[in-house]
Amino acid sequence: MSGKRPPTPDLIPNPFIKKRNLEWTLSPPQATLSTTPSETSLSPTESPPTTAAIESGSAQVDDHLSHFSTRLAGYIAPSSPSPPLSISSYASLYTAAAGNSRGAHFVIHQHDHPIAGTHYDLRLQINETSSASWAIMYGLPGDPNSVRLNRNATETRVHCLWNHLIETASPVTGSLLIWDTGSYTVLPRKSKHAPSSDPSSQTSSPPSSPAYQSAVTPPSSTPQTLLHAAFQNRKIRLRLHGSRLPDSYVINLRLTKYEDAVGRARGARTPRTRRRRPRGGIPQPQPETSDEEDEGDEAIDDGEDVPLSVGGTTPGENLSSMEREIRELEDEHVRLTNAYPGAENTIGSIHQRRWYLSLDRRACGFVEKRTNGRLAWEVDESRYGEVDGGERAREKAGLRTSTGAEYSGDGSDRFRFPFYVRGADHERSVVTGRRGADILEDEGVKNFVPRKGWKPVLN
Q1: Among positive and negative, which fits the CA dihedral 441, 447, 448, 454?
Q2: What's the pTM?
Q3: Phi, psi (degrees; rounded to nearest 5) at 149
Q4: Largest CB tally within 10 Å, which of 23, 352, 427, 450?
Q5: What are the Acidic residues biased-composition ranges (predicted)?
């Protein structure tokens, strides 16, 4: 500062400060931003906040869609094959859902975390601003004859809906890419006590048709209310309309009474504090209580669901005692509500309850047949017709045999059954076409050490 200025109007007089010192003012830091470079006039020395800072809450933007759509568009190389989902479609999907009580947006993030390892986060919109989330270790199943058709889906924190737009990376949380995104439909579940249908009788509308859906679903119901009701019943049947998944892709999410009770008990416990070694002596053994958690029974924690600005500090970060106290209070609020700041847990989500996710093979177009004395799930030819041997109908329905994992940009990018999720070294973003390593490089992350030992389910 080289000179004196008039007193700052917003400065509150302090009786302990000399009057002559009140004539000095401070310039605001140049690194504080609230919008993207395209939304405001920035000086050449200013730079936009990183995606990791926005995700953690340490930086804010006014328009998440504009910020991330502009940023992701800059990473699509003109010489590479076009990704399955264009930036305009990516933006339109979100615009139609955000702030809409009838919105049904979903995203599947591939998250390569250094501690939790590679997993896939399924997020479903539950209200105008928030989404419930499940962490799936091996990704969504795509082979009806897989020996591991069921997958553990661990319930995690409720996220803000704008998290659906993010591709990011940091040394602490690893890489995060959009594996698929689109909209979902909650399908009715048939009760096991319902009478079986007569094969000889012809129904006016098949169960998957809009006419059937409108007949069994009240007109006032929305995807969010249907999801809420299914969530409370612990049985969710979903059809995912994505850009990568087959056209007819239906999954079941199921929470058993036992896992529900275990999850609620775990969520009600008080977090343990780290015991300190007493000075000048050997630590005395502490008696175990009912509040102690069994480390071996702990569910897989989604590392991405621990923002850098909540609960603890990042490596090399120096915080004052007041800042640490504020973060501890934020962490307590997040733990009690199971929702990150800005999100609202209107569905009753509980952290780390273990659900079970499986492929609904019949709804996806398969029937069980015996071939050479062995039972296997095969394409239901009667469902898709016999035109051209059924090949054209099967291809339209996404039932042509393929291994998935790659796209060519020639219009045949949608997965066909069976497909396999092959992990961070192979899978690409549905929006930018990047792999996890590309995102790490684009975000300037150095010396990232991934967790070893992860293997895809290929049988």
Answers
A1: positive
A2: 0.75
A3: -75, -35
A4: 427
A5: 289-305
